[in-house]
Amino acid sequence: MLWIKALHIIFVTSWFAGLFYLPRLFVNHAMVTDNDTSERLKLMEAKLYRFMLPLAVLALVFGLWLWLGYGITGKWMHPKLTFVAILIGYHWYCGKLLNDFKQNKNQRSHVWYRWFNEVPVIVLAIVVILVVVKPF
Ligand code: HEM
Q: Which of 27, 28, 50, 77 is geometrically suited to a Cys-Cys bond with 113, CB 3.0 to 4.6 A?
């Protein structure tokens, strides 16, 4: 079980590296005026997003394995799964925003992206407290 939990934490951490960095690229992209930099950011964003999907899937597979395979659960699991659903929605929305930049259709300011970038930080803090402290 501990190997599965270790793999769960490894892939959660790797997925979060992308969830933190991709919106940061969007912050910079929303401030860019020259085409060369914009094209380079598009490439970086697309590569990073492509990389994030298998990491997310593996993080969730090992989490489900711990929950359904080993039966580790509790009242804390319900809000945890709610925040996991929010993270999946956030990941998907990053894909939509990536397409907006790709088609030069981004409407949002760098200030909006700076606030958007804080969402995974808040979700990570809440989920880690729920699963480690298990407050209920
Ligand atoms: C389908 C989604 C997920 C499920 C079903 C799930 C389930 C679980 C379960 C059953 C455990 C073991 C808890 C224990 O041993 O006490 C666990 C550990 C953990 N999960 Fe998840 N998890 C999921 C997604 C996530 C996500 C998205 C994060 C990060 C935001 C996360 C962070 C953690 C951490 C940090 C631990 C280790 C806690 C410890 O060692 O005490 N999990 N998860």
A: 27
- Give the pLDDT band (50/70/90) at residue 84: very high
Do 136 and 76 touch, CB atoms closer than 8 A? yes
Residues with CB under 6 A from ligand 1: 5, 8-9, 12, 59-60, 63-64, 66-67, 72, 84, 87, 124, 127-128, 131-132
What is the identity of the amino acid at 45?
E
Give the model confidence (pLDDT) of 92-133 as tens digits. Answer: 999 999 999 999 999 999 999 999 999 999 999 999 999 999
Nearest alpha-carbon partner for 115 in 44, 46, 24, 12: 24
